[in-house]
Amino acid sequence: MLLHAPPSPCLSLLSTKSRPKAGLLSPENCLLSSDIYYSIPPKRLENSIWVSSKRSIFSSATTKAASVEGVAGASAISTGVAESDVLKALSQIIDPDFGTDIVSCGFVKDLHINESSGEVSFRLELTTPACPIKDMFEQKANEVVAMLPWVKNVNVTMSAQPARPIFSEQLPVGLQKISSIVAVSSCKGGVGKSTVAVNLAYSLAGMGARVGIFDADVYGPSLPTMVSPENRLLEMNPEKRTIIPTEYLGVKLISFGFAGQGRAIMRGPMVSGVINQLLTTAEWGELDYLVVDMPPGTGDIQLTLCQVVPLTAAVIVTTPQKLAFIDVAKGVRMFSKLKVPCVAVVENMCHFDADGKRYYPFGRGSGSQVVEQFGIPHLFDLPIRPTLSASGDSGMPEVVANPQGEVAKTFQNLGICVVQQCAKIRQQVSTAVRYDKSINAIRVKVPDSDEEFLLHPATVRRNDRSAQSVNHKEVRN
To answer: In 3D, which of 169, 163, 47 has the Cα closest to residue 431?
Structure first.
């Protein structure tokens, strides 16, 4: 019997026999280094045992235990059989995103069994602390293990070990401990992009994640208006020559507006250098999600961000007007060329309710058109609300000021979507491409297939036409 749960973003690495889903990788592009910054190689379960395919001898053992209930004879159950029975019970809990049980996903850690007292303890290690159904996992794990006849007490603890970039040493020091970097982009000003970025970040923080916000708009930074940290100036670490982010309600913040300069008056190349310095030399520390509030447009600044930062995913913000759709389409195409998956569309200011009716003052269909034309999987609607605008001006995000409101629930659903999609992207990349040291070859698995082929690193090197690779080859020659 399978215990089903609602869609879960709590994904971990599947075994090498598991099949990744299609849609984000293809044999043509799966070898680009920019695509595998945020992958980690498959690993075996630690401190746990795979469930055997052979029939368990649990029934005969438990029959004997039941006949001597309350007697120390229950300790006759061997440690190996007891562990196998516990893992078999836990394997009934299915992670619905991939149809794989939590044992095969590698969630079960530190399994300890005391046969004489009937006590079982273990830890469920998820890949994000922002898992929205972690309480359900904990409850189901308690229930299925407690149903074993010889078990008297169950102790389940929850933890999270976010994925790290596989090539972290090749990233700037400030970005090496960030699990996922999410860009919020509109490519057009005035559509509420900063509002979405800030409220998304605080929704993720409310779900238990460690979050940072980077305001990449140097010409018109919005973050100093939308949040109210006590320290409104960035500080420099004189020894490390790094920037110390300011903080508000547990979220780390970096913005040119906190640099004491207000708004920049400078040319594009200088702006790109400032953004690079602010982002890569900051002491972000360990973060689960870094939300980047992208500036409008598709010029040098946007390309610099996409090339310097290994973006995990992008969220697109638009409004119902046709003009907004035209600019958003440019941004989606830019992310597509840079191989950054767009995981959600937020249509802002789409309607308001009055006199029992719903009105659409700017028309309808821009968000749906983006979803249909570019195949972006999720669409979220934000209404015209005076409170949402007022919270942005007051320095307290709407999801903090009114966490139970309709707008906060929409942002919470957006946060769940981002968590889920980022986990899927990491899992699909990690199971699709991996380096096998034993044979000095790259193993490539075709999505939605058991087919696997090998590539020699030298072959990949000769066929890599990226600008950085070509430049290295010319220097070496």
So the answer is: 163
Are 144 and 3 in contact by the 8 Å Cβ rule? The answer is yes
Kindly list the distances between the CA atom of residue 188 and the CA atoms of 325, 330, 354, 372, 385, in Å, as whole numbers in the listed order. 9, 10, 29, 20, 21
Distance, in Å, from the CA atom of 411 to the CA atom of 417, rounded to the nearest integer, reads 10
258-280, pLDDT tens digit by residue? 887 666 666 667 877 888 888 88
Chain centroid to CA 422: how far? 3
End-to-end CA distance of the chain: 63
Residues 6+ apart with CB under 8 A from 257: 215, 221, 222, 223, 224, 225, 263
Residue 156 to residues 5, 110, 138, 144, 146, Cα–Cα distance (Å)? 18, 10, 7, 12, 11
CB 217, CB 188: distance < 8 Å: no
Burial class (CB in 10 A: 0-12, 13-18, 19+), 218: buried
The residues near 58 (Cβ < 8 Å, ≥ 6 apart) are 81, 84, 85, 88, 148
| Global confidence as pTM | 0.69
> d(Cα 163, Cα 422) in Å, to the nearest integer?
10
Q: 272: number of CA atoms within 13 Å, CB side?
A: 15
Report in angstroms the alpha-carbon separations of 366 from 16, 328, 422.
41, 10, 25
Q: Each residue of 362-403: pLDDT tens digit?
A: 888 777 888 888 888 899 999 998 888 888 888 899 999 999
